[in-house]
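Take one protein record:
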Amino acid sequence: MKIALIAHDELKDTMVNFCIAYEGILKEHVLFSTGTTGKRIEAATELKIDKVKSGPLGGDQQIGALIAQDELDLVIFLRDPLTSQPHEPDIQALIRLCDVYKIPVATNIATGELLVKAMERGEFSWRLYKKS
């Protein structure tokens, strides 16, 4: 599976800790991330991350393009609903694309854990409902 990992500034540490906790599962998949988040994950783990530009430089749009091209199976975007900054990636556009292309998207750690645990069990049924 191909997974995108994105986090607003205040949740980058949470994303890094998430990746450390689930490194054994995540290492079996192709991982994409926006630039800064990806660099921090790679520094803290042995995961290989295909990094796009940082969010403020268009990385969120590059992730959106991967969704539209059916290149992603799952998006984990840890968003900060209380203190997100104007320069941070636009979650609404990515959620819309995920809904259009039937890609599961987690916007918080609890949902991210549920989706990763489902992947660990081999439960990929959402792929059956994707459009061609």
